[in-house]
Amino acid sequence: MLRHARPDEIPLLADIWLRASLRAHDFIPAEFWESRRDAMAREHLPAADEVLVLEVEGRLIGFAALNGEQLEALFIDPEVQSYGHGSQLMAEAMARHARLSLCVFSRNVRAVSFYRRLGFRAVEERTEPLTGEPETLMAWER
User: Could you give the domains of the chain?
Assistant: First the structure.
């Protein structure tokens, strides 16, 4: 079931974010992600305009956080990745918006390929300021 997140679910979503970030971004030290978990739970997720969650059999397994037309985060619990859950969340986000943009670490080839399959195109290559890693700004329009 897709629905909006409740405030009491934010800590669980931050945990999914941390575990998925550690798995997807092994080129960035784990300490970086671990040091950002509390900010994700206290600042970033609560500040999002919209946080959609995917619940399967009573368990939250992923979320998409959006600020207007900017996808700030899309994360699926690593235990259930590769079953189409990210595509399901993105289909909902894309149905709600005529255009979306996002930034993804360029070295996260799996994510870049995922967004390209959904119709996103690379707009700009730049450096993410907190990590110094290259990131790709991607955009999609209906």
Answer: 2-141 (3.40.630.30)
* pLDDT (tens digit per residue) in 79-110: 878 889 999 999 999 999 999 999 999 999 99
What is the value of pTM for the model shown? Answer: 0.93
* Angstrom distance (rounded) from CA 89 to CA 81: 12
> CA nearest 90: which of 102, 80, 107, 78?
102
Per-residue DSSP letters for the chain?
A: -EEEPPGGGHHHHHHHHHHHHHHH-TTS-HHHHHHHHHHIIIIIHHHSSEEEEEEETTEEEEEEEEETTEEEEEEE-GGGTTSSHHHHHHHHHHHH-SEEEEEEETT-HHHHHHHHHTT-EEEEEEE-TTT--EEEEEEEE-
CA distance linking residue 61 with residue 63, whole number of Å: 7
Q: Is 35 exposed, middle or buried (0-12, 13-18, 19+ CB in 10 A)?
A: exposed
115-134 per-position pLDDT tens digit: 999 999 999 999 999 999 99
Q: Would you say 112 and 101 are in contact if contact means Cβ atoms under 8 Å apart?
A: no
